[in-house]
Structures are given as structure tokens and as C-alpha cells.
Amino acid sequence: MKSPEEKESFLPGPKYRQVAERLRQEIADGTWAAGAQLPVERDLADSLSVSINTLRRAVTQLVADGVVQRRQGAGTFVRPSDAPPAAAAQPPSGARRLIGVLVPSTTYYYPRVVDGIQRVLRDAGAGVMLASSKYDLGIESGELRAMRETGVRGLLLVPNLHLMDDPQGYVDGLRELPVPYVLVERRPPRPAPDDPTTYVETDHAGGVYRALGHLRSLGHRRIGLVGRRLTGTSELVARGFDAAARLLDVELVEGAVVRSEQWAPADLADYARHCTEAGITAVFCHGDRDAAALIVHARRNGLAVPGDLAVVAYDDEVAEVGDVPLTAVSPPKAEVGSLAAELLLRRLESGEQAPTHRVQLQPRLVIRASCGAVQQAGVRRSVVPA
């Protein structure tokens, strides 16, 4: 049996079908007789060495095929031979709705988005089929196809638009889906004025502006960027930094703005040395981990943080746990997820009459020790409201 750490929570489409086929065969062999209740999810998943999410998808497939039945508040049972198959008729109007949720990752940024989605859907009596694309376009395509085959009633999608050659073409193609959908933390990159896509996203550029405005209020003028490339939000953050720097009269000295796909320790050490040589007194980092690592290298180069170098991070995933707690832009992840789920439920209820929503939520700026404002204010922690 695999430990939870060893299990792959969200595997490509064929895995759940393999599990469904194994359960189907065991039922046919008499492991569970007609009318018998299947073990609870955790026990059954452990016995098959799969994650609960993979098991749920497999059982959902068996429900659709009429092999098993779910009974509200009771569990899952092998369908008696005289019971009508679930697939023989359309679900009744009061049937529990199943919503597909496709995210790029289940380990960073998106868990809190998913929490917001699940809370709203659970309260509405809807089920969730959750899958991860792992930032792989092939897996993304397979998971989306599997969700459609399983019979989801609606979709909440975080597509990997930044990896596509024609992201707008992909978004346009989503209109052919047979069920309503809402984009989450994504929007059409080059939409027509009447683009019908409903989306909910964080105003990333607004968050960057808030961070730079805070640094300027503390007296910093030479501000650098430790940026990223090829992530879902890297271009939005970089453009937001450029715009904020112009509006706030930031002095961008040579070598102050650097972006990379991955920041190696040696590269961060070089950047810290450059801050000393170029008189850069504050740095905005796209990512908590890069910001925490930069602080280590800055100290090795004789820079006190925040005394000589102020640091502000973007994401607020692990910003509070470091030796120097990081001031951070904190996207409203759970709120993005919950609002996207609410809009999808409205679309399910209203059909083609549902209006298109284009929603941006402002992030907060959580002030901690790394920017110096906490010491100046004489407080431990504060939040700049959106």
C-alpha cells in the first residue's frame, strides 16, 4: 500500500478507467454481490493504492454505466439486477450536479483556489471532479476529454494559455463545449469586444502597483525585479512592474530588472551583489521562495534586510514562515475560486440567458518585516486593504 505522499493525486485520464475496470471485474466475480455496499472511499482507495480523487472518478464512471448506485447519505452500492441503469435515462431535475475542475497544479497557488470552489459547490449540493494538468498540454487535453465523457454538468478551467501557440484560438474553441464553463485566473488574451467568455481573475498588475507604491512611500527609488518567465502569471506581473515603475517614477538602473525560468542560487547571489554595486535599495520578487533565497544571499554580501535592502514578494504562499517574514502581495485565491463557482452555478440555472461576467479581484498587501515598515510603525503585522 502506498503512503499518501507516494500517491499521485491527479493522474491522466486512463488511470481512473483502469480502476473502474478493475472494480467492474471484481463486482462481476462476486467480490461484492448485487445490493452490497462498497467500502468507504478511504479504505477502498487504500486497498487499490490510488488517490481518493482517482477512485471517485472511477466510481462516477461506474455510476454512469449503471454498475453501482450512490444513495444520498448512505454510500455506494452495487446495482441490483432489477434496478434501471443510471445511463438509461436523463438525470432527474433534482439530481446532484457534477462539476469538473481543472487546475495546473495541486501543490502551489491553486489549493486555496480549489478550497473556495469546493466550499461553494458543496453548499449548493454539487459534486466536484478535480484534476491537474501538471502544466502539460497533453494531460490537459486528456483530462478535459475525460471530464466530458464522465458527464460533468459544468467546468471551471485554468488552462495553460502561456504554453500555447494560439491561446486566443484555444479560448474561442471552448465555446464548442456542450456544457457551461468559467475561466479561473485566466482570461482571453486577445478577445473581440463581444467575447462571451466569463472569467474571474486576480488583478495581478494592481497588486504589483500596490507593492511598488508601498516601497516608494518608504523612500525607495531604485527598485529591482526578480521576475519569472513561462508561468501563468509571469507576463502579467512583469508588465505590471513596468507600468508601475513608469507611473511611480522608479529609477530602473541597468541590471535591476531580471527574469528567469528558474532562479539558481548562483544567479541570486550575482543579483544580490549587483544590488550592492548599483545602489538598488528594494527588490520585488515574483515568488516567496525566490524572495527568501535572495535575502540569504543579500546577507552574505553584507546587506541587512530590511535595513539596506527591502524585499517584497508576490504570492504569499510561504511568506510568513522564513527567518525574515516577507511583506507580500496576497492574491485572493479562495475568493477567486468561490466567485467562479457561483458564476458557473448561475450559468447552469440561467442557460443561454446568463450574462457574461469579467471579474478582477484586487490582492492585498500584507506588511511584515522584510520591507522595514513594521519596524517604522512599531507593529508586528498589518494589511493594506484592497
Structure description:
It is a single chain. A seven-stranded mixed beta sheet has the order 9-8-10-11-12-14-15, sandwiched between helices. It has helices spanning 14-28, 41-48, 52-64, 110-123, 137-150, 167-173, 204-217, 234-247, 265-278, 288-300, 333-350, 373-377, and strands spanning 68-71, 75-78, 98-103, 127-132, 154-157, 181-184, 199-202, 223-228, 257-260, 282-285, 310-314, 327-330, 358-361, 364-367, 382-384. The chain is elongated. Strand 3 (98-103), helix 4 and strand 4 (127-132) form a beta-alpha-beta unit. It has three domains: 14-84, Arc Repressor Mutant, subunit A; 98-202 and 334-361, Response regulator (Rossmann fold), CATH 3.40.50.2300; 204-331 and 365-384, Rossmann fold (3-Layer(aba) Sandwich). It is an alpha/beta fold. This is GntR family transcriptional regulator. InterPro entries: LacI/GalR-like_sensor (IPR046335), Peripla_BP_I (IPR028082), Tscrpt_reg_HTH_GntR (IPR000524), WH-like_DNA-bd_sf (IPR036388), WH_DNA-bd_sf (IPR036390). One of its GO terms (molecular function) is DNA-binding transcription factor activity.
